[in-house]
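Predict the structure of Broad specificity phosphatase PhoE.
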Amino acid sequence: MTLFLVRHGRPAIDPARPAHTWELDPVGFDDVWALRESGRLPQRAAWFCSPEPKAVATAQLLTESDVGIVDDLREHVRDSADWIEDFPAVVRRAFAEPHLSAHPGWETLDACRDRVVAAVTRIRDVHAREDVVLVGHGTAWTLAAADLAGQAPDLDRWQSMAMPDLIRVDD
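Done. Here is the predicted structure for Broad specificity phosphatase PhoE.
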């Protein structure tokens, strides 16, 4: 079984709304279709995604298969509509102190990791004999990939991730 962690396509950013409400930007549809046509995703797999609109739309553009929506695959919770000018610096601070909330209204990265890894583990246990594609988010996938590999999160990879992007985890 191979696990494919797909980061959603480019969102339509609205600084007045929390990121978890953002839709997929139609300007980025071609990038999602390019990933679909790249041959990097399996022909047959179990598909699941985060409930966030940008993840659901990305999954719908990537496959004709049924896609299960799993609430615990949502991104690192950032229940704040505050626009953060130096967002990467705040996320890096969150990774440096994962037991603390890096910004008011933010989930700790420890809590995010525990939630996402538990969901990924449940899905992998049920679909142990087939490939699995999960469509979600950069921070969540950085945490999950590191935990599954028994390594520290790779912040350089997090910062360089494209929208969409793919992390492949082989058993």
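The mean pLDDT is 94.
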